[in-house]
Amino acid sequence: MTLKKFLMVAVVAAVLVACGDDDSSFATRPSDGSSSSVTPKSSDSETSVSSSSTKPSSSSVESSSSSSVPEGYVDPSTVVTGTMTDERDGQTYKTVTIGTQTWMAENLNYAYTGVLYNYTLMDSSYTSDSTSWCYKDSVEYCAKYGRLYTWAAAMDSAGEWSTNGKGCGWESECSPTYPVRGICPEGWHLPANSEWNALFTAVGGRSAADMMLKSTSGWFDSGNGTDAYSFAALPAGYRYVDGSFTNEGEYVDFWCSTEESGDFAYTMGLGFVLGIAKLAEYSKLKGFSVRCVKD
Length: 295
Fold this sequence. Notes:
- This protein is of the alpha+beta class.
- It has one domain (45-56, 73-294).
- 15% of the residues lie in helices and 25% in strands.
- It contains 5 helices and 17 strands.
- A 4-stranded antiparallel sheet has the order 3-4-5-6, with no helix packed on it. The protein has a 3-stranded antiparallel sheet with strand order 14-15-16.
- Strand 5 (92-98) and strand 6 (101-104) form a beta hairpin.
- It is globular.
- The N and C termini lie far apart (69 Å).
């Protein structure tokens, strides 16, 4: 082989290596009996459901062939929308039935204020009179996005409404009894990782879910979704442990009842640039949104 040909081969090989997938910064972990998911680490009252309408179909489905339907996929035209009422405070929420699951189609806005929030780490400390907040502590954001909760509040670690998630909080590994009602209204519960994975399957896979579950407006930089299943996920942002708020318009994370460790629990997250629905681990002290699923 001539020197010129040798150099050409070497350059091509280097380009191929540079374009390969690099998974070194991610960890794959199983989630309570469901399929494993890629999880980037971050430090940081009886209810009623009434049918009202169905959603038009969509052609975006993860499938090897346009004529084949993946097992578990739900045609968007078959979803049923309705409403439910939280008898604790009288608030009414939109709902959507996708296959065998019925979800809240709005973020929970129940004001859980009976437990103090105290955070101290190294030289940093913060105290609040609540473990749930409106974004930027403004009621207008609660009306739009619902409230943001710590994982302990979302799990009802104080045992206010059930004992299934009692004791599940910061620096405390627990063994909850599923389903975990948590802070959800009676007859509803905080979804586990496996239930989110079932929803991903129903809408065509995790890549499809990013577009299918996001609202058609409100997302930064043309990151809106199609909302084909009337799930209407809005970019509520989140609350840091020090009391600051960020990422409204860009990201939303919903707490799961699945724990990773004493300090971390899982969320289901969507973003304006992610391109895929993710199950990731975050500090239990952060404030994230809650979507409940019907028992």
